[in-house]
């Protein structure tokens, strides 16, 4: 039942925030903050409980919830939580708090409705990480879209409507392809076993011919690749990230993209192991292409938010690589990368948002020399830029290193090429700091440095990243069982 | 005529009697709200009588009608939808100067025709129901007779409906000439298959269906009629009149029979693809919300034909569920239009909807829910409907049609979102002249609230309805 509450609490908090908005602007903020904090607390509680009982084991859900929903079609309300989902839900709760906090002063228009949409999207994301019925998964997957669309379209920047519609159509069409694949899988499994069900556990054993498996895998892969995003279906991302309000960018980059990565690990690899193994070289190539392409384009941007958005493309390339390399090391790296990218990119978006609130521009050509005026912000930006480029001692380094190490066994060439991405990332990270904070001062207005609320938000993110960089073992242990399960399904990867 | 027959015909008699009572009441004294009350009471009595009908079991009434679970289910749907239209019409007609009462008589007659259609077992009752429906619709469409567009729409519908009826009649004549029967149950497609003339007759009948269902390329009347007709009538045309025809088609020309005959399969596949692509692509160009919804309804009928083609119980259940979801959704969408419109000026232009969220937040929310349901987004009935259609088409391995459906409905998102964007993200524009500010009329507001609750309810917990539908269609199609 606690799994249902994990989804319901943010959603109810959102409804409450909306209703309370009649009275004042402060209520929705506090209610949303309380709701998502409660969610995080519940997730931490589950985590602590799991360790007391000996930690997650392979092939077993830590917590499960299973009720009939639409019986006549074999649809159940089936939720389950293992180490992988748990980590992602912890991330969702943590960044959910950050996204509420970073909107505190930025959002002044329709505060009630904003927090309703924000909580709604967070609830749907938590649900996606928990769903073990393919209908339910698709239901929640699509449910993420609407609030996100409104977040971008109503509270976004200049070209918000274009960005919102593009985001919606990209993800919707790719989602519909996944729907066809889900339905096809349902019939393949039902036809062979006589049991028509959308249950994940049952479908894992669906007997697939090579070509059917290949097509169905592609259906799922398309949906997740768009969300991830993988080159060449990433084009919605720079627009959506750039135009979204800060909280929207944080949720998009740190959480929504992760649902794509999660989908690869939870569905594509275990459901279609043979097809995925056959497809792996192409997917790894796409991942490497993403790493390089994103990094090069990030360096070329003049809009700060767009620049951070392209670094996302680059970092998520590592996730794609790691997932399809399929060795336990690479999978661990991919999961760590998911978490660290969520933290570091979220922080960068928060900083850019704070900067825009003060300087009223994100244009690098009009910024510069901000360090004397904003020393705290400059220092923080420096820190997260270094994290993004993979400085040892911070989480991203561990993650990218593990991915490269794990991929080496599968494809040394891809590993070597992807490593070049690390060099380019150094260039753009330094360029970001240099162009905005160093050099001659170009912004005339007087600005106040990061305040207590902002420092708390960013400080928490700093601590989390340092922790993941110095002592990632608890996270690795939590994910180990899930990683072992996934790696075991891929032919010939578990031993490496 | 015995007691059982009376019970079987109960709902039909109730609706018919309500029309008579209305006529008498109006001749004594005209009072709009009393008239509306009588009409609604008649619909309610008919609906309650349905429960009595179920207990008698599936029985034919002579050779003309067949009253079984299937017919009863659709009759219930028609009655409920008609009641919603009547509720929406109350507020709309309040703003008409004179002659408000006749609207309800025509509406009930149209409902009567639709009920005859879904229970028809014979060419004669089929045509009778169809004409009863069409002729009432001429009046309903041209009802605000001082407004030129309404009269134009009525005239257009009259000419095209009459032409399509001619096709239909000729088709029936050919089939009768070769097969020697007018009872559906005694016709066999296998016999028709070897006979070019009979097959031609079936083709002509399909053309007649195409007109009524507004499938591309027989859709030309749709946008004009939707735009010109008073909004409550538009709601009726887009739901009840199409639903009744589709129910009849589904029962007597089931998808697996169609797929067994190459020519028919090709025709229906092309109709489905043309409707999905045509409806969605043409909607992109529209700046009028009523026209936009017209093209959207064309596309939705295309999706329905995809499910219909799958054949078997699964497909019949999917079509029935989708129809129910589509009814709720379209009534909600046109309900908002009806609340915003007046007989003198239909709220069609997209400018009328700009900034609606700020002025009328509840109406904007209802319309958003309806549009998202049309787009098939979760938490709405349309999502479950679309999923069901996908499952049905998957059961018959119609992958190519499914991919067309997914791609075109993806394109369709764009125009639904445009209305949402206008309501939420753009400031109110000028030219809202006809749109009155203030509260929705009580009856219309109630109907909209009920429809919205239903729309979300079906989107979250469709289990009971699915179970009911599966029981009702079992063995019928």
Distance between the termini of chain A: 38 Å
Counting structural domains of chain B, the number is 1
The number of helical runs of chain B is: 20
Query: What is the global morphology of chain B?
Result: globular
Q: Give the total of beta strands of chain B.
A: 2
Provide the spatial order of strands within the biggest beta sheet of chain A. Answer: 1-2
Q: Sheet with the most strands of chain B?
A: 2 strands, antiparallel
Name the average pLDDT of chain A. 88
The first-to-last residue Cα distance of chain B is 29 Å
**Interface with most residues:** A-B, 34 and 33 residues
The tally of helices of chain A reads 19
Specify the biggest β-sheet of chain A: 2 strands, antiparallel
**Helix-strand pattern of chain B, N to C?**
HHEEHHHHHHHHHHHHHHHHHH
- Report the C-alpha radius of gyration of chain A, rounded: 21 Å
Q: What are the secondary-structure elements of chain A, in order, as H or E?
A: HHEEHHHHHHHHHHHHHHHHH
Low-confidence stretches of chain B: none
**How many E-type strands of chain A?**
2
Query: By helix and strand content of chain A, what is the structural category?
Result: mainly alpha
Shape estimate of chain A: globular
Strand content of chain B: under 5%
Structural class of chain B: mainly alpha
Task: Give me the secondary-structure topology.
The complex is a heterodimer of chains A (496) and B (477).
Chain A: H1 2-20, H2 26-52, E1 63-70, E2 75-81, H3 83-102, H4 111-130, H5 134-143, H6 145-155, H7 160-193, H8 200-203, H9 210-227, H10 236-243, H11 246-271, H12 273-300, H13 304-325, H14 328-359, H15 375-388, H16 395-408, H17 412-437, H18 452-470, H19 473-489
Antiparallel strand pairs in A: 1-2
Helix pairs in contact in A: 1-2, 1-4, 2-3, 2-4, 3-4, 3-11, 3-14, 3-19, 4-5, 4-6, 4-11, 5-7, 6-7, 7-9, 7-10, 9-11, 9-12, 10-11, 10-13, 11-12, 11-13, 11-14, 12-13, 12-17, 13-14, 13-16, 13-17, 14-15, 14-16, 14-18, 14-19, 15-17, 15-18, 16-17, 16-18
Chain B: H1 3-28, H2 32-56, E1 59-61, E2 65-67, H3 69-94, H4 102-119, H5 123-141, H6 148-179, H7 189-193, H8 196-213, H9 221-228, H10 231-252, H11 255-260, H12 262-283, H13 289-310, H14 312-340, H15 356-359, H16 361-375, H17 381-395, H18 399-425, H19 442-460, H20 463-473
Antiparallel strand pairs in B: 1-2
Helix pairs in contact in B: 1-2, 1-4, 2-3, 3-4, 3-10, 3-14, 3-19, 4-5, 4-10, 5-6, 5-10, 6-8, 6-9, 9-10, 9-13, 10-13, 10-14, 12-13, 12-18, 13-14, 13-17, 13-18, 14-16, 14-17, 14-19, 14-20, 16-18, 16-19, 17-19
